[in-house]
Amino acid sequence: MKTMNQRKIMDMVKGKGAVYVYCRDTDTCNMFAQNADKEGVRFGDGVSATARKLDGIMCLHEDGTIAYPGYIGHMAFAVGQKDGKAAERIDYAKYAAGEEDYYYCN
After folding, report:
1. Which 3-state string (H, E, C) describes 31-100?
2. Can you give the pLDDT of all 106 residues of the chain as single tens digits?
3. Rounded Cα–Cα distance for residues 33 and 68 (Å)
4. Which of 26, 70, 32 is nearest to 49 (CA)?
5. Quick check: helix, strand or coil at residue 105?
6. Residue 85: CB partners within 8 Å, gap ≥ 6?
7. Which residues, 6+ apart, have CB-to-CB distance to 97 below 8 Å?
8. Which of 66, 70, 73, 78 counts the most CB atoms within 10 A of its CB?
9. CA atoms within 13 A of residue 96's CA, in its CB half-sphere
10. Dihedral sign from CA coordinates of 50, 95, 79, 83
């Protein structure tokens, strides 16, 4: 798997409030965690991304925190809607590889 190019994790969420991040496999989760640690992105309680087992779907908030989405968040991710608007769903493997179309499509 390619390593992170020029893109930063926090660039995914800038000006959006929060986005869903999809990690398709363990390697992608590990890459996300390592890059999150490098940028100072942590869980809301201050725990580093590499200190926890990451889920395939996570929420990244504009304040630089990661959260597990829970049942309702998983439903919103699945249907692509959040609060009646399109949910920002980013496929992290595509994003990190520098692909132009890095949005998750089911």
Report:
1. HHHHHHHHHCCEECCCCEHHHCCCCCEEEEECCCEEECCHHHHHHHHHHCEECCEECCEEEHHHHHCCCC
2. 444 457 899 999 999 999 999 999 999 999 999 999 999 999 999 999 999 999 999 999 999 999 999 998 888 888 888 777 778 999 999 999 999 999 998 7
3. 13
4. 32
5. coil
6. none
7. 1, 2, 5
8. 66
9. 22
10. positive
Question: Which tokens is 58 given?
Answer: 């996570």
List C-alpha distances in Å: 64 to 2, 5, 44, 54, 69.
23, 19, 9, 16, 15
Token representation of residue 59 = 């929420």
Both tokens assigned to 64 = 């630089």
d(CA 71, CA 11): 26
Token code pair at residue 17? 């409030």
